[in-house]
Amino acid sequence: MSVQVCVSISATDVPELLGQAQKAERLFADLIEVRLDKLRSYRGLSKIARAVEKPLIATNRPLSDKGSYDGSETDRLKVLTEAVSEGFDYVDLELATSKLGNAITSFRKKGAKILLSHHDHFRTPDITKLQTTLTKLQEYKPDLYKIVTTAQFPQDNLTILSLLYKNCKRTPLVCFAMGQTGIWSRIMAPFYGAPFTYASLGRGLETGRGQLAITDLRRIYETIGLA
Questions:
Q1: What residues make up the domain containing 41?
Q2: Is there a domain that residue 164 lies in?
Q3: How confident is the model at residue 2 (pLDDT cuts 50, 70, 90)?
Q4: Residues 6+ apart with CB under 8 A from 188
Q5: Taking the complete model, does pTM exceed 0.90, yes or no?
Q6: Does the structure show a pLDDT above 80 at 226?
Q7: Domain containing residue 67: CATH number
Q8: Residue 129 lies in a domain
Q9: Are 61 and 69 in contact (CB under 8 A)?
Q10: Whose CA is closest to 121, among 198, 68, 66, 175?
Q11: 147 domain-assigned
Q12: 3-state DSSP call for residue 206?
């Protein structure tokens, strides 16, 4: 089994993002999530798309979802539209996105693939509630699904991985729990059916709580013979 890893990068300017994307590719990232919500300017995004061969996911997380983008919803989606126009492959849209159906239609017309996401930043609901959330995501028929919760207790890892295992055969679902307690759900997600898991570019460069650096994550997989 070859484990797929998406490296998430974030910076305040495009040149720094460009360097991070190139480094992620050198570290054998399979996909690269480019967090746009901290950028001060969006000029030059095409340089990133031209510089790397791996699929790029454009994410512009709003303050309401623990991101850094503080502009209007219309402007937030315009930034994602610009990224797609500049060559990004996927857009990460939150389930709570305003007029979500229309947004998905618009991005698809521009050639983008849709990663539809839901994050619970406080807890891990029970499996029934999680399944209800997944059903809501499925109504929009995205290309990839993402449900991420927060692990308060060790057993929360089992809950989120159970959701993943139950649905992975018919739904391309990225699924794990955030936080220190949820680290092993990030590690184990691919073995429960997730198409990939997320990692940071390096220690101190995490874009989510509990992210492991790609080198550390690859080392773990190498140790168990599944690199």
A1: 5-115+177-223
A2: no
A3: confident
A4: 157, 161
A5: yes
A6: no
A7: 3.20.20.70
A8: no
A9: yes
A10: 66
A11: no
A12: coil
Query: How far, in Å, CA of 99 to CA of 96, rounded?
Result: 9
Residue 146 appears among annotated catalytic residues: yes
Average pLDDT over residues 80-102: 97
Could you read off the pLDDT of 160-215 as tens digits, one per residue?
A: 999 999 999 999 999 999 999 999 999 999 999 999 999 999 999 999 999 999 99
Q: How far apart are CA 146 and CA 117, in angstroms?
A: 4
Output the pLDDT for position 1.
66
Type of residue found at 191 = F
The CA–CA distances, whole Å, from 211 to 47, 51, 98, 216, 227 equal 26, 25, 28, 10, 18
What are the residues facing 118 on neighbouring strands?
147
Q: What 3-state DSSP class applies to 30?
A: coil
Classify residue 102: in a domain, yes or no. yes
Name the domain count of the chain: 1
Integer Cα distance of 62 and 222 in angstroms: 36
User: Which one is catalytic: 54, 99, 109, 119?
Assistant: 119
Q: Which of 118, 146, 166, 169 is catalytic?
A: 146
